[in-house]
Write a structure and sequence with these properties.
115 residues, 1 helix, 94% helix, coiled coil
């Protein structure tokens, strides 16, 4: 291959590459411009969404606080009832235990056999 032909081919390839790169940059510029326009259009919506999220979070916090305030007295009553139930169960178990011992001890006192 002749040197002038090689130089010509390289020069032609460089020209094509430069042309393609320039075209790609033009397309990128157009894409970036379009993205900028879209961003400007959605920016107010994004701000509104942020405000609504903040309002929703505040409302949820307030509702949770109110619910806790309403439930707290009920929880105290439930805890008191549980303590009373526990004491009643302990009393029943003690009575059953005493009856068991009395049943075992009764035959010795009366001379009969236990069931």
């Amino acid at each position: 291959m002749d040197t002038p032909n090689v130089v010509g081919l390289v020069y032609q390839a460089l020209g094509m590459s430069t042309s393609m790169a320039k075209s790609s940059l033009q397309h990128l510029d157009k894409d970036l411009e379009m993205i900028g326009k879209i961003y400007e259009q959605i920016l107010p919506d994004m701000e509104m969404i942020k405000k609504r999220i903040k309002q929703t979070q505040q409302a949820i916090g307030q509702i949770a606080e109110e619910n806790c305030e309403q439930i707290e007295p009920d929880m105290e009553i439930i805890e008191e009832n549980m303590n009373q139930t526990k004491q009643a169960l302990i009393s029943v178990l003690e009575t059953l235990e005493q009856n068991h011992y009395n049943t075992i001890a009764a035959p010795e006192k009366t001379g009969t056999s236990a069931p």
